[in-house]
Design a protein that fits this description.
It is a single chain. With 268 residues, the chain is an alpha+beta fold. The chain has 2 domains: 75 residues, Multidrug-efflux Transporter Regulator, Chain: A, Domain 2 (Orthogonal Bundle), CATH 1.10.1660; 150 residues, Multidrug-efflux Transporter 1 Regulator Bmrr, Chain A, CATH 3.20.80. The chain is built from 7 helices and 11 strands. The radius of gyration is 30 Å and the shape is elongated. The model has no long low-confidence stretch (mean pLDDT 85).
Length: 268
């Protein structure tokens, strides 16, 4: 007489045939996703050959990124529309992950360039003229003007107001561009993102680098405007302020490298 148990597969045998590890088979059993047909008192699990097909589906779905819950719902409530929804949702998740990875790569490239260019810079008050290509930025207008006296105050402010500082971050000024304004007051925060909501204008920039703890901003901006006046330049756009090495390179908390970039043109 044919003994049914003789036609069953041990968990090790089923693991080899299905490509699912023994540990995952035990996990799937506990999650009611793929249960053995027989479980003896010694806790040994046994499977049938016709469960191989379901196991293959699980392997494929997991490689496609579907969660255990999604796969379980698929087996319990199978329909074409459910499968299409699962696929559509997973495509959206993958697109989001790809976008995040591209942003991470972009951030790493930025920081690599900044370290190579600025890490050895110890001199204070360096003026350079550079031509910048147009650049994508994401602007985050502030609901109210905030006076930021120190770099750490700025970071704390961002955290309290749920402003993401995981990107390269800085400030941009559009109005009242004169030495008389209080440069501690933040007008708008920008992030360097691959996909932004604002394009930084291409063109000629005066770039001023110095060291700051945030307390001497008015003094630094006064030096910038004095230099612009001495060279007969005219401000031809916005002013961007950022800290190229902060957050990624060990520095004195009271001595951050600040970079002020001013769109300029020569007087006719």
């Amino acid at each position: 007489m044919d003994n049914k148990e003789d036609r069953l597969l041990t968990i090790s045998q089923f693991s080899k045939l299905s490509g699912i590890s023994r540990a995952n088979l035990i996990f799937y059993d506990k999650e009611n996703l793929l249960k053995p047909v027989l479980r003896k008192t010694n806790k040994y699990r046994f499977y049938e050959y016709n469960q191989i097909s379901k196991a293959y589906k699980i392997v494929i779905f997991r490689k496609m990124g579907f969660s255990i819950t999604e796969i379980y719902n698929y087996f319990m409530n199978f329909s074409k529309n459910l499968m299409l929804d699962m696929i559509s949702n997973n495509i959206k998740n993958l697109e989001s992950q790809i976008e995040n990875l591209e942003q991470q790569k972009y951030n790493l490239s930025l920081y690599k360039r900044y370290i190579e260019k600025y890490e050895s810079r110890n001199n204070e008050g360096i003026f350079e003229e550079e031509f910048f290509d147009s650049e994508e930025l994401f602007l985050n207008p502030l609901s109210k003007k905030e006076k930021i006296n120190k770099m750490n105050d700025f970071l704390i402010y961002c955290r309290k107001n749920n402003i993401n500082i995981d990107y390269h971050i800085g400030r941009v000024f559009f109005k009242n561009l004169s030495s008389e304004r209080d440069w501690h007051i933040t007008e708008c925060i920008f992030f360097k993102k691959i996909k932004g909501n604002y394009k930084k204008e291409a063109g000629k920039y005066l770039v001023y680098t110095n060291f700051s703890d945030g307390m001497n901003l008015n003094k630094l901006y006064k030096e910038v405007f004095q230099y612009i006046e001495s060279k007969d330049y005219k401000i031809n756009g916005s002013i961007y302020e950022d800290y190229p090495l902060s957050g990624i390179f060990a520095t004195d908390e009271n001595r951050h490298l600040i970079r002020i970039s001013v769109a300029i043109k020569n007087y006719p």
